[in-house]
Amino acid sequence: MTDPDPHPGGRTVQGVETSCRVLEALRELDGAGVTEVADYLGVSKATAHGHLTTLYKHEFVARDGDDYRVSLRFVDFGEHAKNGVEIHEVATREVDKLAERTGEVAQYMVEEHGRGVYLHKARGEDAVQTASYTGNRKHLHCTALGKAILAHLPEERVLAIADRHGLPEMTPDTITDRDALLEELARVRERGVSFDDEEVLQGLRCVAAPIISQGGELYGAISASGPVSRMKGDRFREEVPELVSGAANVIEINAHQV
């Protein structure tokens, strides 16, 4: 699932851009008043108030006293977007089964605008708490899911994503060099699976496999992740990768019937 910019350098509408920044500010601040939003964005209180009032009128934000927050209308938009993903129902079933079989956290991710978007997450019996959640957007270079996706994008697209979003260091083990990333992606293609060896969070490891249609379309990736204490040795390098690859294969087969 790729999403290159169809109109690079195209004209944008300043007012819409400001409204988008206001929504992002409310999300980052976990709700805020007019003054706080204005200060956060570096705009006047009148500008912040005008955009918040308009967004409130159209029910994209809600009010709690003097504070505004992103409204639940976005839940409707999110569900609509998820249901538009061709294999979402099939992938969700297999993520749930993978979580049960491994006892760990299992997830499904797609790429949009050069970032990874989690579309489903399931927790097995022994799963640890992780910060990811449905709808969460992540850098692709540091997650097993992201590397499984990047490995099956054209190299020019991978480099464009790196230019746009950078390769920030999450832990000392994160790949932050473009050439090193390309070498790692070549290994992913050769192995058929990708690994996150404490590259996002120290103490956490993850295994992922790409989901590719019979026609070669990249649908996304599926993964299982757990603590280093359990994800080690043959379990990390052999057993879990086999389960993850099997789940990806089932999705690919069933996707052909969708």
Write a brief structural summary:
The chain is α+β, with helices and mostly antiparallel strands and 258 residues long. 46% of the residues lie in helices and 19% in strands.
What is the CATH homologous superfamily assignment of the largest domain? GAF domain
Individual helix count = 9
Strand content: 15-25%
The level of helicity is: 40-55%
Cα radius of gyration in angstroms: 20 Å
Predict the CATH topology of the largest domain: Beta-Lactamase
Description:
The protein has 258 residues and is an alpha+beta fold. The protein has two domains: 58 residues, Arc Repressor Mutant, subunit A (Orthogonal Bundle), CATH 1.10.10.10; 178 residues, Beta-Lactamase (2-Layer Sandwich). Helix content is 46%, strand content 19%. Helix 1 crosses helix 3, helix 2 packs across helix 3 and helix 5 runs antiparallel to helix 9. The longest helix has 23 residues.
